[in-house]
């Protein structure tokens, strides 16, 4: 993507503005652990168990969120939300965040995913072309209390477990094993590993499988998913998503309204903004991208909660004829419900949302997509982040997992969540607070079980509005 214009704003090097000072503490690990232990007197484990119902209008809240989305995509978005309580839960992260802001919490800050449900872990490629498995969604990432992520993981285990036909007792057992895994990993991180060892922890699949196989059976479908992930690269995207136009040029295949070509004006805007994006990647990636030119751009919507945001695919062709596909995703303001942000003592109003997402992703993941970057559209005020599309990205299909696979998968997700949180120095306080206590396990599980009933109630209200046409009707 050679830059033909010398725009001073483009040439200026971007600096991350997301403030991480809240997780930088001038204390030793021992002092942090003692601080966390002492916090139990102020925030006893029993207080975490109580779910406090929050008065809000679910449908009105969802409609407010959708006011910033593309209207023609809302019918498909509603259809996806209506598929099951778990799908609804996945697509309404802002609703749980609003509720969490009204619950008792330890308020020990770490960099959190903000949406650490069991479906937001998956395979992807490292810069060295190794297959990794880790957290893979960071749209809601921020600085927040560690337990927000753990609670969201637990509720997702309940809803996904119900979808798989597991009984309540078995699901509760899986929840407890997930929290216990989180406790064990944080204990190991701060008792047995140095700061550098925590940082260099590998999520490369081959090493990961070997290191975690001792005493723990791994999901039997892992090898199958790994093989599928290894085949997902830019050239396969080209085969699946493109065709030749009447002039013989390679272009994206349309599939309206999910995939449509952008206007010439939007095409030029995206092309111009990608020059800003180049200032946020490393020099080697910028030099690599200078060998490519833009061949086509489409709006391509994905996901559940993010379906309806402004997302694009950019087909790039290199001077040697090879291809690369970049995905551009709109970065919405986090914690958005009923027109009000969910403000906590760690909320920030200044940082660009694309910067926020990229910053938190790079903290939480052991290795990130080398093409990860961002830009801000000054004209519209919208933020975007950029990454490579597909590139060995794959996820585990949760539906149909047998009980053993589901149990082990949930524990792996808890392990990775703990490893991600451990990158924040303040996680030493979390280690001291949570210890090995079963009372903490039972408290978080009790809360999650109570909240899952709230999700079912919210889903019922949404489904009634959907079925009676109070929301946009499904397209024919």
UniProtKB/TrEMBL annotation:
InterPro entries: DUF2252
Source domain of life: Bacteria
Protein name as it appears in the record: DUF2252 domain-containing protein
Organism from which the protein derives: Lentilactobacillus parafarraginis F0439
Native organism taxonomy: Bacteria, Bacillati, Bacillota, Bacilli, Lactobacillales
